Amino acid sequence: MAYDFTAIDFETANGFRGSACSVGLTRVRGGRIVEEGYWLMRPPEGYDHFDPRNVQIHGITPEAVAGSPRFGEVFGELAGFIGTDTLVAHNAAFDLGVIRSALEVSELSGPAYDFACTVKLSRKSYSLPSYSLPFVAEAAGSPLENHHDAGADARACAAVMIDLGRRHGGGSVAAVAAGLGVALGHAPAYTPGDPLSKATADAQGWRSAGHQVPARQDWALWPQEGENPDPNPAADPAHPLFGELVVFTGNLAISRQDAKNRAAHAGARTASRVTRSTTVLVVGDGFAAADLRTGRLTSKAQRVLRMQEAGTPISILSEGEFLQMVGGSWPQGS
Fold first, then answer.
1. What is the DSSP letter of 274?
2. Rounded to whole angstroms, how far apart are CA atoms 94 and 236?
């Protein structure tokens, strides 16, 4: 079987997954990039406000997409580009969730997709302080210079998947994943009238309450750890947090308990302190992966770095990466 797939990356206007404002696609045939596509778009009507924090991340403004078609007008072309390919994305649950939620609020049908997540595959293949896309792309020999440009991110993700194929000798994405003990994901087809995803149901609740995005709660300045819930036994094994032991440090845009509940829903275990069993540390307070190189870290993160240097495989996520994985929003006005 030929090493063929399409890499995909979305950027969104706000905390709702269906608020797609740009997408990049990279087609790979026989382990080589052969075609790329990039679209700016207006998010679906009613979900098209731009949160300042999202704009700060990707630089796309309402004015930049004012003359662009909406997601529903672009999706047919996107689907035609993808065809029957396996989709590959870095934190694929987010990008496939964008498709599903945007279809739901656009009242459009969409096909099923098999997909692979390069976050999960990279954890099995590289020893890195962070599995953020810039770190992984650099390890794959394709440094990423314009992170959060959807076209650049899709190209980098494709390069990572190509490198994984070279390293592990699989003749297909499915074979590489199977060789690493990672399950492919499957996003079912959608037809209007099917049950809505949680992301869309939540967004409809925000709108009915008169909010654009969830308002930030007034929790304590020093976050309360709360309870560590049991992992969801019905969680998708393809989710990048499934089976991980997650610890949180610093303030997130959601409460510590809410963060733990969302991680557990994705199949992760959670804990209140870093130990040798920890596999993922989520860092709040505006942390970005680049801070690993500057030293702007909490005490928990500094401990994790020391443990990494001693050979303990723990990865560090920013709050933005975590919220993409589990569904969530930046606080209003930030």
1. -
2. 13
pTM for this entry: 0.75
Cβ atoms within 10 A of the Cβ of 55, count?
A: 16
Confidence of residue 146 (pLDDT cuts 50, 70, 90): confident
Distance between CA atoms of 11 and 19, rounded to whole angstroms? Answer: 8
Express each pLDDT in 9-33 by its tens digit: 999 999 899 999 999 999 999 999 9
**Cα 25 vs. chain centroid, distance in angstroms?**
15
Residues 6+ apart with CB under 8 A from 77: 39
Confidence of residue 220 (pLDDT cuts 50, 70, 90): very low
∠ CA 22-236-9, nearest 5°, is 15
Does 215 have pLDDT greater than 60?
no
86-112: per-residue pLDDT in tens? 999 999 999 999 999 999 999 999 999
Domain ranges in the chain? Answer: 5-206, 214-326
Fold of 5-206: Nucleotidyltransferase; domain 5 (3.30.420)
**Tokens representing residue 111 in the block:** 């096909």
Q: Which residues of 308-323 are buried (b: 16+ CB within 10 A; e: fewer)?
A: beeeeebbbbbbbbbb
How far is 9 from 301, CA to CA, in rounded Å? 28
Task: Assign a CATH topology to domain 214-326.
Answer: Rossmann fold (3.40.50)
The span from the CA of 282 to the CA of 320, in Å, is 9
List CB contacts of 204: < 8 A, sequence separation 6 or more: 196
Picking from 111, 113, 116, the residue whose alpha carbon sits closest to that of residue 88 is 116
Q: 25: how many CB neighbours lie within 10 A of its CB?
A: 24
Question: Can you read off the two tokens belonging to residue 152?
Answer: 């650049």
